[in-house]
Inverse folding.
């Protein structure tokens, strides 16, 4: 296992990334008992508040020069904690003022703010932008296509795939990690290999980095990698 401190790696200078927001509607508060299918959309939440989108609230560190930092305004609907024994399909924009837990996988589609933990006994798939204030844990793979701002630890027992931008506090990943975009965190523990996809991809670890496998660079992701 290799150990590095305050490391930064990139294949080339990277272009800027701007997150987009989704349209909204209003409706009554969410009741988990009323949605056994595990599908939640803005129509199932009460009118919420105007909040900034997924442009990150903190100034980017040096590898992030050029990253869009101005807020994207979007009207979020509010929801209480969401729990299901089955797979969850969630549609934003949604401000979840509690936790999200699933006995299967969790699929985020759109813009989200999650005030507490995210727990999935399957995988977590993000297509859009998620700001998480609590811990994130998945027993399956974590597939990010968009932007994730994780204020607490992210622990994945499968693979982590980043297509876009991930800014986090601490990452502990048991499978392989691939980055097609940017990754920035304070601490990284990786039991698999790390692969940067494309000439514009980079990762930066502020404090400590432990990578058990190889650190690779590829022009594109192989079909068998995911």
């Amino acid at each position: 296992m290799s150990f590095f401190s305050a490391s930064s790696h990139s294949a080339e200078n990277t272009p800027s990334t701007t997150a987009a927001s989704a349209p909204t509607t209003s409706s009554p508060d969410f009741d988990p008992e009323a949605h056994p299918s595990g599908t939640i959309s803005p129509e199932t939440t009460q009118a919420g508040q105007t909040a900034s989108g997924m442009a990150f609230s903190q100034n980017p560190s040096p590898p992030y020069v050029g990253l869009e930092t101005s807020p994207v305004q979007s009207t979020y609907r509010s929801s209480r904690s969401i729990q299901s024994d089955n797979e969850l399909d969630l549609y934003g924009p949604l401000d979840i003022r509690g936790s999200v837990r699933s006995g299967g996988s969790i699929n985020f589609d759109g813009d989200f703010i999650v005030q507490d933990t995210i727990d999935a006994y399957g995988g977590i798939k993000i297509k859009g932008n998620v700001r998480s204030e609590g811990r994130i844990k998945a027993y399956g793979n974590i597939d990010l296509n968009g932007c994730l701002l994780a204020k607490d630890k992210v622990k994945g027992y499968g693979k982590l795939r980043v297509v876009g931008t991930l800014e986090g506090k601490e990452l502990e990943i048991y499978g392989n990690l691939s980055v097609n975009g940017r990754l920035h965190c304070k601490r990284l523990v990786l039991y698999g290999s790390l692969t940067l996809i494309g000439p514009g991809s980079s990762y930066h670890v502020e404090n400590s980095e432990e990578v058990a496998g190889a650190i690779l660079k590829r022009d594109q992701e192989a079909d068998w990698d995911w």
About this structure: The two ends are 23 Å apart (CA to CA). The first strand starts at residue 2 and ends at 10. The mean pLDDT is 77.
